[in-house]
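Annex B, item 7. Sequence and structure tokens for protein A, then protein B.
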Amino acid sequence: MLAVIMLIIAYLLGSLPAAILVSKALKLPDPRTQGSGNAGATNMLRTAGKKAAAVVLVSDALKGFIAVLLAHLVGLNPFQVGLVALAATAGHIFPVFFGFKGGKGVATALGGILGCSLFAGLMSIIAWAAIAFVTRYASLASMIAMILAPVFITFFALPDYLVPVILIAALVIWRHKDNIARLKSNTENKIEL
């Protein structure tokens, strides 16, 4: 029963839309009506600047990290903790508070993975940063980081985290389906770091 309660809490925490809340606080347009229409840090970077994007990025990552930290604190087993990270990511992508239209889930997923395994999370974040720096494609960096996350979990964490992290990676990559099409057609927007 405790695991179910934590999954609900994680989903609701993930549903808190940092990009929308930051936009309202700074009197900026709703990010779902600007740029790519995505309520996440990359769209905030493109439409509202680096400071707003940084606040959104950290806030979104904290949603996953805090959910996992709470799951650890209440004594859930590693598999359940991994599912909590998945629930927070799903909440970010499909937020109940904003019509189930959220972001891509990358920062929340990375925050959750970081909470499951510090080293696997850091390696995934470093992979994202390196690929984004070299290619300037946030979407490509995100998908490659998600592909690598289960590999890092395999080597640096308990095996019980593997299935939830694979599910997180699959969900985030699926959410990038439009980006995949734009990458294939060479129409994907680059980011400025």
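Protein B:
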Amino acid sequence: MNPRIIVRMAALAVALLPLHSRGNSLTLDQALSLAVERSQAAQAARSGAASAAQTARAAAQLPDPVLRAGIDNLPISGSDRFSGRDSMTMKRVGISQEWVSAGKRSARQAAADAAVHREVAATHASLADVRLQTGMAYLDVYFARAALGLAVHDERHAHDELETARARLSSASATSQEVLALASARGLAEDAAAEARQQLDVARAALERWVGVPVDDVAAAGGSTAPSEDAYVSRHPAVVAAQRDVDMARSEADSARINRSPNWSWEVSYGQRSGYSDMVSVGVSIPLAIAPAQRQDRELAAKLALVEKAQAQLAETTRVAVAEYRGLSTEAARLAERVERYRTSVVLPAQQRTAVALAAYRSNQAPLTTLFDARHAELEADRKLLALQRDLSRAQASLVFKAISEGDLP
């Protein structure tokens, strides 16, 4: 089976029922652009990515220095209590700084960048979902209008046939039973048209929820090419998200590995004594990893376990995406075969039957009900074909819009 499936969307329905699209019809590209622009879910995802990007900018920076001030060696008893006359008493001011190695800061930066990439992937996944839902709503409107066209066509024929039967009844060339049957048929056709209008209104409301503007009519969607299996899987939102989780887990594991070595801190202070020499103090603080096997090694082991978890989830998500693609491809291919077979083996014979019944009716060799039955059978065949084409278009649209747009990936 050729993985390059040509997506015709609703173009197949044009062969069945030409629609008179208006000049201001909404196109699929316009609908997708409007939906992406106004999507609050996409905006929320963008805000999350912006937040992660701001956090990443500070990840590689050194901690803020600490200002220290105080009084050292102040007597609290004796004749010099609470005074600065003692030679050991001094006012002190200093500054300390925790020193984080360049390797640690680089690892923190990598982890922060991985978080940014994960948020960006969430943004693109949100946009892909918006496009998918909008495309489906667009197709629903298109095919609902096509179904309405069929229903209106049937309604008009039912009305004409009833009027003809009534005229023939007055001339005794038709029976009252035929007239009553056609009257019932017209009522059914009118109800079917009303139901089709209702479904079109519902479909329009669903599309307007995405595009944010009133939708009167939609144009036929142009052809588009579905991605290959590898492209579909690599750009699948769940696969991209799982890959970003793996990248982030690896970055955090690298950071935990480097964190096994402690951060040093240095301090410089200046002490002032009344009547005595001022002093300067310099010091270094070094944390002692007295039990790395119980702390640092366990933290690293925990991060490495999360890497294995993320990799397993990625493998499982990839398998699901592959199965999804193959299922959609198979469904689209089978539906395309059914559409073509149904058109040639059902729709065309139904049209020929109607033509034969019409000729027989005009030559007074068949009653009007025979023509009505033939036209009704043709209409049902057209409706079935339209339903198959709608299913085909939705399956093909899933192949096109489910994956993240190629231009959105880094």
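Comment on protein B: The first strand starts at residue 6 and ends at 7.
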